[in-house]
UniProtKB/TrEMBL annotation:
Residues 458-484 have a biased composition (Basic and acidic residues). The chain crosses the membrane at residues 6-26. Coiled coil: none annotated. Residues 458-496 are annotated as: Disordered. The keyword Transmembrane helix applies. The keyword Membrane applies. This is VWA domain-containing protein.
Length: 536
């Protein structure tokens, strides 16, 4: 893979000798000695030629030869550095494994280690626009919070709910988190990356990481959160932890254990930084791993031939010398006119349409989070539905996904139903997605969430209707559904809530939902919720 300096398109170098060859031919053709040497004796010819043969000056032919030489090198594509292919982040799945042990409450990095790690995940999501990222938490057990998704708002909702009191057990069973992340990424079509945020490591877990490095196609990255100097330890509620002598308990970064892991399991290790360089490193490593694991034909090298355009532009300045522009401007004019699209006009001047398809323009808008423009440009129905979904037009997105085949379309159809609070329809869509593809971790997680939300809705007593929300009429569809279902036409229709307040308006908070979920998976009684009440 590491080729050093080379040319992407070396066949263009065959034009390189053409420049010197043209110059030699021109000089030979315009040399008076060559034209007269067959008619005049050589010892007389040199004395009969009149002209300043010793003074050299640039001529148009010299620029032509220089353009041929420099242009052939530029077209050959000199390079020495790998480049991320377009939309590579879309295809590089990632799982974040977050340590929730009490040591993550230390304040040697502000505000706490856990809060700093959560902020780094947010930075990573902003770098991976369109990329699929999942979330796992672990102490002595490991649990999935979110399967790989590109929904930054959904990630933020659950990320903000994380605290060290969500998991009842204590410990650092990173091997369990590794196995769970590996299973989730195996369901993806492309090799992925597992990123650990932790402040320590148990040496007993090293053999599991060594075996993973030898057999798995997923790479592992370790990010150390904290300092070797350490800092005071706080509780999940923010109170200072003290020992029996009343002194604050200090928690230090277990740097030695992490170094042993990195050395024995060949895992890249780095510490979090104040800037964004650490997350940029994670993203580069993820894309580089994807390039290595995939076929070599998918590898893209950074094009450095463009820099040779600067000397070419500099050479073009000399074309406008007196006596030069007349000869060559017509050629350049005809080339420029021939390159113009025939349909271009002053009233319809869409330069982007000359070079990019509507779907490519839609992807550009999608990457820059202008989902309204992306939806207008996309012709591919699946991507058009995604843009509408991200723009918050869930009903329009659901109508598109309903017409598309495949498990992914059914998953997005269920998500669109869920945002419209139609949980039963969402549950049916997730079940259909699971029938088409199994395992499908994202559909399984959303199906579990819908089951809880449906139960929550059934347990809530109906509110008394006021005059504004009382139905104007109730109709029964006896022919289609045998009169079992009713549709209500209300005088005032309630608008769907935005995505960021969707979960907050339910009777269960993300933290309580996660606490209940983890307790059920651990086979333990549900812990008390953060507000003091029993979990739903």
């Amino acid at each position: 893979m590491e080729q050093g300096f080379h040319f992407i398109r070396p066949l263009w170098l065959l034009l390189l000798p053409l420049g010197p060859l043209v110059l030699w031919w021109w000089q030979r053709r315009n040399d008076p000695l060559q034209r007269w040497k067959g008619m005049i004796a050589p010892h007389l010819l040199a004395h009969l030629v009149v002209g300043d043969s010793e003074h050299w000056r640039a001529r148009p032919i010299h620029l032509v030869c220089a353009v041929i030489v420099i242009g052939s090198i530029a077209c050959a594509g000199p390079t020495w550095e790998l480049e991320s292919p377009p939309f590579a982040e879309d295809r590089a799945p990632m799982m974040v494994a977050m340590d929730l042990s009490p040591a993550m409450n230390a304040i040697d990095v502000s505000p706490t280690r856990l809060e700093r790690a959560k902020q780094k995940v947010r930075d990573l999501m902003s770098l991976r626009v369109g990329g699929r990222t999942g979330l796992i938490v672990y102490t002595n057990t490991a649990h999935m919070v979110l399967p790989p998704t590109d929904d930054a708002a959904l990630m933020e909702m659950f990320l903000s709910a994380l605290s060290t009191d969500l998991l009842p057990g204590k410990g650092q069973n990173s091997a369990a988190a590794l196995a769970l992340a590996d299973r989730l990424l195996d369901a993806e079509s492309d090799p992925g990356t597992i990123v650990f945020f932790t402040s320590g490591f148990d040496d007993a877990q090293i053999p599991a990481f060594v075996a993973h490095h030898q057999r798995s196609r997923q790479q592992v990255l370790m990010l150390a959160v904290g300092t070797t100097k350490g800092g005071p330890l706080r509780t999940a509620s923010g109170a200072m932890q003290t020992g029996q002598d009343g002194a604050p308990i200090e928690a230090k970064l277990d740097d030695q254990a992490l170094q042993r892991l990195a050395s024995q399991a060949h895992i890249p290790l780095t510490s979090i930084t104040a800037g964004n360089a650490d997350m940029q490193w994670v993203q580069r490593e993820a894309l580089h791993h994807l390039q290595i694991m995939n076929d070599k034909s998918s590898v893209h090298w950074k094009e450095y031939g463009y820099f040779l355009c600067y000397p070419l532009v500099l050479l073009s300045v000399f074309w406008f010398r007196r006596g030069w522009v007349v000869r060559w401007v017509l050629v350049l004019g005809f080339v420029g006119v021939g390159a113009m699209p025939s349909t271009a006009s002053a009233a319809d001047w869409h330069v982007a349409d000359w070079f990019f398809t509507p779907d490519q323009q839609g992807r550009w808008y999608y990457e820059h989070r202008d989902f309204e423009q992306a939806a207008q440009h996309f012709q591919n129905p699946y991507w058009k539905g995604l843009a509408l979904y991200q723009h918050g037009r869930w009903e329009d997105a659901q109508k598109i996904f309903e017409t598309l085949p495949g498990a992914d379309a059914k998953l997005m159809s269920g998500n669109s139903y869920a945002h419209q609070f139609e949980y039963e329809e969402a549950k049916d869509a997730y079940n259909e997605a699971l029938r088409m593809r199994h395992p499908f971790p994202e559909a399984e997680a959303n199906l579990q969430l819908m089951t809880i939300l449906i139960k929550q809705r059934a347990d809530v007593p109906p509110e008394k209707q006021d005059e504004d929300t009382r139905p104007d009429q109730i109709k029964q569809d006896k022919e289609g559904k045998q009169g079992k279902d009713t549709s209500t036409v209300q005088g005032q229709r309630l608008m769907p809530l935005p995505a960021d307040v969707w979960m907050r308006n339910l009777s269960v908070s993300p933290a309580d939902f996660l606490r209940t979920k983890f307790s059920i998976e651990s086979g333990q009684p549900a812990a008390a919720s953060s507000n003091g009440g029993a979990p739903p």
